Structures are given as C-alpha cells and as structure tokens.
Amino acid sequence: MAVSENNVRVPITIPKELKQQLDNLAKEDKRTFSNLCAKILSDYVQQKKDGE
C-alpha cells in the first residue's frame, strides 16, 4: 500500500498482547490499526503541548 506524500511509514516494535488490544480497540472504533495509532500519538502530542 502506498503512503501519501504527507505521511511517513514508521516501523515500531510492540508486544503482541498490546498489538491485539490495539486491534480490538481499532475495530470497536471502526478504524484501522494504523489510524488508531496515529490518533493516539496525535492526542499525546496535543496533551503535552497543553501542559497536561
């Protein structure tokens, strides 16, 4: 699958159990695994900017 010009593919290593949990959450939210991870990271960055 091609990555758009505005995005970058980032390989990460996570525990299998965490991957399964994230897959389940993504499915519940009707998102892809990748989209959920991007949202989680974006939310984290925003919280840091807001001083939380």
UniProtKB/TrEMBL annotation:
GO terms for molecular function: DNA binding. It comes from Fumia xinanensis. Keywords: DNA-binding. Residues 8-49 form the CopG-like ribbon-helix-helix domain. This is DNA-binding protein. The keyword DNA-binding applies. One of its GO terms (biological process) is regulation of DNA-templated transcription. It holds the Pfam family RHH_5.
